[in-house]
Automatic annotation (TrEMBL):
Residues 1-21 are annotated as: Disordered. It is a lipid-anchor. Serine/threonine kinase that acts as positive regulator of brassinosteroid (BR) signaling downstream of the receptor kinase BRI1. PANTHER family: SERINE/THREONINE-PROTEIN KINASE BSK5, SERINE_THREONINE-PROTEIN KINASE BSK. Belongs to the protein kinase superfamily. Ser/Thr protein kinase family. This is Serine/threonine-protein kinase BSK.
Length: 333
């Protein structure tokens, strides 16, 4: 056992669904049943298992491009009987009450969806607090959007991310997991089929208080800056920022992007690397959705069901072969 290497020798492998909207949501429900039968049951892991899986939490097993804060590292590892996993090691200081940690991890561990990187288990021993999730072989959206040098993300994949993540947030909302912490491109990963999924690590607080943001305050919702409180509408704001990044391929302060859209200069935000390989009408619709999500007043932002309804008509994936996405993510296209 121990940590594992990617197909690219220089990198450790990263780890931690159009006829109508109604039809698509029904399909996700069917996928939900299938996912529940395929994903192992949520369980408690022994510290020894996770220690061995990561070669003693070796720096060589740290997932590149993931959450790199010194106190909350994510490792890749192999566990006998479970397979490849992502292991998040939380700071010993953030969860002094072990039962609170177990309760929150268990609540998230009950979720099962093909739109999520499902949580497989947890570990609580002594001062250790660890989370174990499914292994995602193709890295984070952040990696491919901002740091990938071989090929730009095609428009079809960007729209797919917007739609699938909207579905993930809507599922979490339905399951009463409405608070997602620090939604960003680094929380979105690609599975073995090349499909984007939302990390469940973001459903668990960075600390027992859940008031700390790890991202730059420039990108946090206005209400958090004013009150220090995270609300469901804050998640919608972050989703809007992800849309801006998907369209632009850049880190752009939400306020600046919002002003550009309101001045009817939305096309100025488009990623030049796309070289016009997108439908302007679809891009405008996606940017308009982003502007609704970035409203200063939380009550003016759409709900998760509205996100799904808005993104669904932009899906034209029947025109794109699955193999194309896989080869793209694999770097072989």
């Amino acid at each position: 056992m121990g940590c594992f290497q990617s197909k690219d020798a220089d990198h450790v492998i990263t780890s931690p669904d159009h006829p109508s909207v109604q039809h698509q949501l029904e399909s996700v429900t069917e996928d939900q049943v299938e996912q529940e039968s395929q994903v192992p049951c949520f369980k408690r892991f022994a510290l020894r298992e996770l220690y061995d899986a990561t070669n003693g939490f070796s720096g060589k097993c740290i997932v590149p491009g993931g959450e790199m804060q010194a106190l909350n590292l994510v490792y890749g590892g192999m566990i006998e009987g479970t397979g490849l996993v992502a292991i998040k090691r939380l700071s010993k200081l953030t969860w002094p009450d072990a039962q609170q940690f177990v309760n929150q991890a268990t609540a998230v561990g009950n979720l099962r969806s093909k739109r999520l990187v499902n949580l497989l288990g947890y570990c609580v021993e002594g001062g250790e607090r660890l989370l174990v999730a499914e292994y995602m072989p193709y890295g984070t959206l952040s990696k491919h959007l901002f740091h990938w040098n071989r090929q730009e993300i095609p428009w079809e994949m960007r729209v797919r991310v917007a739609y699938y993540i909207a579905q993930a947030l809507d599922y979490c909302n339905i399951e009463n997991q409405k608070i997602y912490h620090d939604l960003s491109a680094s929380r979105i990963l690609f599975d073995e089929d090349g499909d984007p999924r939302l990390s469940t690590f973001g459903l668990i607080k960075n600390s027992r208080y859940g008031t700390r943001y790890s991202t730059n305050l420039t990108y946090t919702p206005p209400e958090f800056s004013e009150t220090g409180i995270i609300i469901p509408e804050s998640v919608i704001y972050h989703y809007g920022n992800v849309l801006i990044e998907l369209v632009s391929g850049k880190h752009i302060p939400p306020n600046h992007a919002f002003d550009i859209i309101m001045e009817k200069n939305a096309m100025l935000l488009m990623d030049s690397s796309l070289e016009g390989r997108f439908e302007s009408e679809d891009a405008t619709k996606l940017l308009n959705l982003a502007s609704k999500c970035l409203q200063k007043n939380p009550e003016d932002r759409p709900d998760t069901e509205s996100l799904v309804s808005a993104a669904a008509p932009l899906q034209k994936l029947e025109e794109v072969k699955e193999s194309y996405f896989i080869s793209f993510l694999d770097g072989s296209a």
